[in-house]
Design brief:
Pfam family, one: PTR2
Largest sheet: 3 strands, mixed
CATH topology: Growth Hormone, Chain: A
Keywords: Membrane, Transmembrane, Transmembrane helix, Transport
Organism: Parasitella parasitica
Number of domains: 1
GO molecular function: dipeptide transmembrane transporter activity
Shape: globular
InterPro entries: MFS_trans_sf (IPR036259), POT_fam (IPR000109), PTR2_symporter_CS (IPR018456)
Number of strands: 3
Oligomer: single chain
């Protein structure tokens, strides 16, 4: 693509029907400059192995949401005398303790991906890391289910068992989360756009950008289908008890492990990269203390001109420097996400407690959180097939930064509405509680926010990361959830009556401000999105680069051994 075109805004991406396409693997002409101007863009076919990875994610998310759905009631309320129960419970620790522990669980689940990413990118590779952490995850599930039995609760094992279980489960889920999204995207190997003809004789451009957008929409859709497990587990919790509520997701995790293992020969697996942190640290050392310039100045092509004596020690190439710069720009965008995740976290703890003070009929209060995934399951295909193409026909092209900004705005609206509902609850003087149906818009607005902020964040993390750092950059994106949990810990003291209205109002205001600032500071990234995604090396260059670093690693090993 010409330099002029690389500087233009990302071209239009239009959804399509895969059945409309036919393809000759040996006939993939590159688009000309005129093609880029005139032809619409579409996504490529998604490989079968990607669907296998989607099954793994579905089982893991079914398990995660199925067991975490009852957590708030499990901790907050005392054990009822019998089942079915008007209000299920086990520990009787109160709302503040329940919110604190569920917040810690979220914190732990989103800090462990860093460890999982390092294990994958440097030592095991994504596939073997997922298999290892799946086994760890399963051990935690067994502990949680066993200590949630009637005998376990009666003998005081529920609380210590819960603490041990969530630590083990959090380690397992963190190791899986940092690797499964990059693994599903890795199954699509085409890196260059090409022109093809549909069965309707329309010439179109098939692009990696459109394909990755489709893959991550599909990935997020699968997550939310799996999250509907909380409907079943909250019903089991209310009518039978907590042990079957945790046994169901434990059993569902078994097919996920089997798919990981049995499908091992079908996955495209990038080998572990090795000492990526050492290489990046050496590059920054050059920049700060040796070259004393920008990262651009540390490119080998520039070092050859300015510091030829340093060239032999440079284990990176020009492309790695460009990739690292691209990843750093993405990580700066991620710095805003803790405020977004703070809004999102309310649907899994404080809104559940709010529903407990409202009229829910014969359904459990914590079933309300399932409105969020139901909205997403319905809305994501509509957005992908109809809304985005319609907007583009009117010249409205939603780049990733604009989508993220819109996501923050919807999260702000959701929290503002929730503050209004909480105020209505406090003002209610009737003997009859307010219907929990008033909560529905809260979940709808948060779901809308996920379509724009969460889906795009996953896509952005993968596309902007160097090949050798896919899991690590994804883990850094997930780490923003961890910082949101820290903020949530700071708000535990106000997560009590009558302060909840002001807590929701403050969170809403913060997200609204961030929605503006994200666009103000980063909107220029949308103009260079396609050019950034094109950064990479050819197969032969990649092979030479890997051989160079393998040789360097062997030299360093011999030095250490000596």
């Amino acid at each position: 693509m010409s330099e002029k075109l690389e500087q233009e805004k990302a071209p239009e991406i239009v959804a399509y029907d895969e059945a409309d396409l036919h393809e000759d693997e040996h006939d993939r002409p590159e688009p000309t400059e005129e093609d880029w101007k005139e032809l619409r863009q579409i996504a490529d076919d998604v490989p079968f192995s990607a669907y296998l990875v989607l099954v793994i994610e579905f089982c893991e998310r079914f398990t995660y949401y199925g067991l975490s759905g009852p957590f708030q009631n499990y901790i907050q309320n005392p054990a009822p005398e019998s089942y079915p129960a008007e209000q299920a419970g086990a520990m009787g620790k109160g709302q503040q303790t329940a919110t604190a522990l569920t917040t810690f669980f979220q914190f732990w689940c989103y800090i462990t991906p860093i460890f999982g990413a390092v294990v994958a990118d440097q030592y095991l590779g994504k596939y073997r890391a997922i298999l290892l952490f799946s086994i760890i995850y399963f051990i935690g599930l067994i502990i949680l289910t066993a200590t949630a039995s009637p005998a376990g609760i009666a003998n005081g094992a529920a609380f210590p068992g819960f603490i041990v279980a969530i630590i083990i489960i959090g380690l397992g889920t963190g190791g899986i989360k940092s690797n499964v999204a990059p693994l599903i995207a890795e199954q699509y190997q085409s890196k260059s756009p090409y022109v093809k003809v549909t069965k309707k004789n329309e010439r179109v451009i098939v692009t990696p950008q459109a394909t990755y957008q489709k893959i991550f929409n599909m990935f997020y859709w699968g997550i939310n289908v799996g999250s509907l497990s909380a409907i079943a587990t909250t019903e089991l919790e209310k009518n039978v008890g907590f042990w079957p509520a945790y046994l169901l997701p434990t059993l569902m995790f078994i097919p996920g492990i089997l798919v990981v293992f049995l499908g091992r020969k079908r996955y495209i697996q990038a080998p572990p990269r090795g000492s990526i942190f050492v290489e990046a640290a050496r590059l920054f050392k050059y920049r700060l203390f040796t070259v004393k310039g920008s990262l651009e100045a540390c490119k080998p092509s520039n070092l050859a001109q300015t510091h030829p004596e340093l060239l032999e020690k440079a284990t990176w190439d020009d492309v790695f420097v460009d990739e690292l710069k691209r990843a750093l720009r993405a990580c700066v965008v991620f710095c805003w996400y803790p405020i977004y995740w703070l809004c999102y976290a309310q649907i899994s703890n404080n809104l559940i407690s709010q529903a407990a003070t409202m009229w829910t009929g014969n359904v459990p209060n914590d079933i309300m959180q399932n409105i969020d995934p139901i909205v997403l399951i319905i809305t994501i295909p509509i957005m992908d097939r109809f809304v985005y193409p319609t907007l583009r026909r009117f010249g409205i092209n939603l780049g990733p930064i604009l989508r993220i900004s819109i996501g923050f705005f919807f999260a702000s609206v959701g929290m503002a509405y929730t503050a209004g509902i909480q105020s209505k609850i406090y003002a209610n003087t009737s003997e009859y509680p307010i219907s929990a149906g008033y909560q529905i818009p809260s979940y709808v607005f948060v779901a809308f926010s996920e379509i724009f902020a969460s889906v795009t964040g996953n896509e952005y993390a993968y596309k902007k990361a160097p090949q050798s750092m896919k899991s690590i950059v994804m883990a850094l994106f997930l780490l923003t959830n961890c910082f949101a949990s820290i903020l949530a810990f700071a708000l535990v003291s106000v997560a009590v009556d009558p302060k909840l209205t002001w807590m929701y109002t403050g969170i809403s205001a913060a997200s609204f401000i961030c929605s503006i600032l994200v666009y103000v500071f980063h909107h220029k990234n949308d103009a260079t999105d396609v050019a950034d995604d094109a950064i990479g090396r050819t197969g032969e260059a990649q092979k030479q680069y890997e051989n160079q670093n393998k040789k360097q690693a062997e030299i360093e090993y011999e030095i250490e051994k000596a």
